[in-house]
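Model the whole thing, not chain by chain.
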Amino acid sequence: MDQALLAVLSFGVGYAIGSLDNIRSALKRSESTSFVSGVAKEQKQQIKNKINIDEAKYVTDISTDDLETKGGSLGVVSQSSDDISSAANKLAQLKKMKG
Amino acid sequence: MAKGLDVGTSFIVLSSETEGGTVEYKDFRDAFYVIKPSTPIASKMIEKGLAGKVFVKDADGSYIILGKDAIEKAVERNDSAKRPMYRGVVSSKEKDARRILSYILKEVAGKATKKGEKLVFCVPAQPVDQEDDDFDVGYHEDVVKKILEECGYEARAINEAEALCYSELADDDYTGVALSWGAGMVNVCVMLNGEPILKFSTTKSGDWVDRMAAVATGETDSVVQAEKEQGDFTIAKPNENQVLAAVATYYDRLIDYTTKQLAAAMDGHKALPKFKDPLPVVVAGGTTKAKGFVKHFEKKLTENGFPLPVKEVRHAADPLHAVARGCLIASQIL
């Protein structure tokens, strides 16, 4: 009887130790997996941050072919006796000095 | 030969140098008015009635009258003309805005004399008095650039008030303040030795005066605009004409508002250096043509605490062409 009890106890203790070992290695595995998945997540987030959609408005073709000119030409033309070259030269020199 | 182009809310002005050393300007009123005929007979009648006017026929059979003829036609029909631009940029309020603006620009600028001819055009600055994100200079710049490139130009944008500085501050070593009072907005630039150091805009100008006077008198904006441009009134002075009296009052309010905005935007601004000499302040644009403008503006600048020392406030030599002239000067050096 005592021998049978001892055998059951030894089996129980052995089973418990075996289970603990299994649990420990499972925990170790999960720790390392969660570290790996954390790094992967971070990398994914970084890539995600780099890929931004360009929301700037896009200028599509502006066709005026369907507008048929009927009336006269556009604009009133006038002339002014004005020499802009001296003003342009002065400005160019200032810009040059500023580098 | 390079060219300059003032792309304004109310006027588009092309500037170019002639071989004789003079500057040639081509002005076009930036407005349109659409008439949609209800029957083929009405279409023929309308077309006959438009003889001598500047207009185009659209694919859907409607007639689009352009320029000052559009305003005249709108006034005739007790209506308001439309604008392809609103507050200095291509209008998002009008569905045809881009197409109409494209047509007008292509016609006014014409084809480049050689491929890659330089053309400098102006764009407004970011406003200091508009909190929403509706204002998009970048898109407007891209639209105008694309249209001009289709005409064969190598187009480049500069700020509107910066162009005014280039035109008017040559005798002041390109140092001073310039304000371009267009129809849609007021653009401001502070320049030091040819370098723009501060640029911004405010979103109320001539159109605001028209709108407010129209609301006060029950007239359309186009009627007020026509009265304002032809009528005799002095800013902040009484007038027997009801519309002009309202215009004179709202001009006073506009100048007061703008000078307060100037003081608020510039006071203690980090970009502003300590100027050792008082600065010239130059104003230009159609809105400044009202009687008493310069005097009233100078008075309000002082009253509302303009933070920079002022030598004088003066009108541009040619207020309607000054920005286009500045763009032309820029086209020679940029």
